Amino acid sequence: MRASQLVPALFLMVSAGLLAGCAGAVVGAGATAGVAAAEERGLEGALEDTKIRAAINEAWFRHDVEMFRKVTLTISEGRVLLTGVVPTDANRDDAARLVWQVAGVREVYNEVLVRPAGSALIDDGRDVWIQQELKAKLLFDKQIRNINFTVDVTDGTVYLMGIAQSEGELQRVMAYAREISNVRGVVSYVRMKGAARAAGG
């Protein structure tokens, strides 16, 4: 990527991160670029995913503000994982339908849960604790390139995305997830390094 393209690219990445409601503070565009460049998908891949995220968030926001609030996005190489909780099947289907309309989307994994109004609430605090616990385990394991994995947790189920260096690395990540208290299951949408990517559409 040329230097003339770098500044607007980083601005888009930071802006999309803020739009998506990132929990962590934005340290700076330089740090964002450094992290993205170190990932297997590279800076350009991270930028493309950021553009997709921004377009999806805009589509959801225009369609239904509650959808924007309740459905969570995880994106890796144009592969989009949807999690969260909505009240109806129609809400769940609409979320995926709008994602497929965004340019650059290759695959959509719809793991959104349907819980009608009045149903038992999901323990968000527990899910956040599981997520942070797993991220910490991956961070301190030198046999795992944690930067290539994203973790989402909904109702005790851990969802993994990203790119694994090997089957052994992926199994190590999944083993960490399974040993955490209150984890009900682990679902992997991790791609092996070197494996063919979906064509999209």
TrEMBL record:
The keyword Signal applies. Keywords: Signal. Residues 1-20 form the signal peptide. The keyword Signal applies. InterPro entries: BON_dom, Lipoprotein_DolP, Transpt-assoc_nodulatn_dom_bac. Residues 48-116, 126-194 form the BON domain. PANTHER family: BON DOMAIN-CONTAINING PROTEIN. This is Phospholipid-binding domain-containing protein. It comes from Magnetospirillum moscoviense.
